[in-house]
Design a protein that fits this description.
Distance between the termini: 39 Å
CATH class of the largest domain: Alpha Beta
Structural class: alpha/beta
Shape: globular
Bound molecules: adenosine-5'-triphosphate, magnesium ion
């Protein structure tokens, strides 16, 4: 950017030394071209300057920054890489992330956004909706529906590679979910707009208890957590989501019509993962990671089952604020 500015100044200084009329025209054209270039660097655009896909970056982030989620990491890497490398996807990518609180669902969405958009979550092409904040009143359902549809349509028209994250999906009105269904489907285009490059991510705690049960069963049987595979969680997850009236999916045909490409389970986090989160948090705060400090903090957190203290009740969620008391 600085180099570009210097170039603008330099070229205007140079052209000033030549014949006035033509150089003014040339300088004007040059400045316009440079101005355009500058504009593209400063303002986010829906092109290769501002978005792409860094698959090795995503792989590395999932491996080094996301703790205790070997199943989710694997599914996400495969799903996102497959989709982003497909020049002609038949439908948008639809991921549904499920799990206990504080296990990394928002965090993973952030990592995915960072692997695609230069500006990550702050990109103008990434849209985060939280059910309770954006759609709080059931009586405004019809208004929410049309606003949401217009928002999605307008933004995908503006940039086909848009990402929509719906948080607290279990608290979202089923009618609202129904209203976005057409965008998730296998259509070439809807009213002249193609949604096939878009990415939809749904986050919820639905199915979290069933996932915990599977993890607990493995632990009780003395089996390694890493032995847990997607197949061990898939059935329990989809059935529970389908049967849970509060999950938001209940009244819709999202599952019926196979609109969700991947259900991604997030395992409850153990003591050692909380410690890893604590150490990472210290580093993020610019401190030297100190195992003794983090250990003191982790010991004071609440774990379940009560006797065995295996899984963290809040996952890694409150670590950032808690840590301040122990430093
Ligand atoms: N598995 C994980 N690995 C590394 N850090 C994690 C993990 N899970 C959570 N964290 C940390 O904890 C913070 C809170 O987690 P996050 O918001 O992703 O939880 P969540 O699964 O969305 O929970 P909730 O269901 O309550 O919304 C993250 O910003 C991240 O710093
Ligand atoms: Mg969350």
């Amino acid at each position: 950017m600085k180099a570009l500015l210097r170039y603008v100044v330099l070229t205007s200084a140079l052209v000033g030394a030549f014949e006035p009329v033509s150089t003014a025209v040339v300088a004007g054209m040059g400045a316009a071209a440079l101005g355009r270039k500058l504009y593209y660097y400063v303002y986010e655009n829906c092109d290769g300057t501002w978005l792409g896909f860094n698959s090795t970056g995503l792989e590395e982030d999932l491996r080094t920054k996301l703790f205790g989620q070997h199943v989710a990491a694997r599914v996400i890497l495969k799903a996102v890489t497959g989709f982003m490398n497909n020049k002609n996807p038949r439908k948008p990518l639809v991921l549904s992330l499920h799990g206990w609180t504080g296990t990394g669902k928002n965090y993973v969405s952030q990592l995915i956004a960072e692997s695609i958009y230069c500006k990550g979550m702050t990109s103008g092409f990434v849209h985060l909706f939280t059910a309770t904040a954006h759609f709080p009143h059931e009586m405004h359902l019809e208004l929410y529906k049309s606003q949401l549809q217009q928002w999605i349509k307008g933004n995908v028209t503006n940039c086909p590679r848009s990402m929509f994250i719906f948080d607290e999906m279990d608290k979202m009105h089923p009618g609202l979910i129904d209203s976005i269904k057409p965008y998730l489907d296998f259509y070439d285009n809807l009213d002249g707009v193609s949604y096939r490059q878009a990415i939809f991510i749904f986050l919820s705690n639905a199915g979290g208890e069933n996932i915990v049960q599977v993890a607990l069963d493995f632990w009780t049987a003395g089996r390694e957590r890493e032995e847990i595979e997607l197949k061990h969680l898939e059935t329990a997850l989809s059935l529970s989501v389908f049967n849970n009236k509060n999950s938001g999916f209940w009244h819709t045909s999202l599952i019926d019509k196979n609109l969700v490409d991947f259900f991604v389970p997030f395992l409850p986090l153990e003591y050692k993962h909380v410690v890893q989160c604590g150490l990472a948090e210290m580093a993020a705060k610019g401190l030297t990671p100190d195992e003794e400090v983090v250990d003191r903090m982790a010991r004071d957190l609440s774990f379940f089952p009560k006797e065995e203290r295996v899984f963290s009740r809040q996952g890694c969620k409150i670590i950032s604020s808690r840590l301040d008391f122990y430093i």
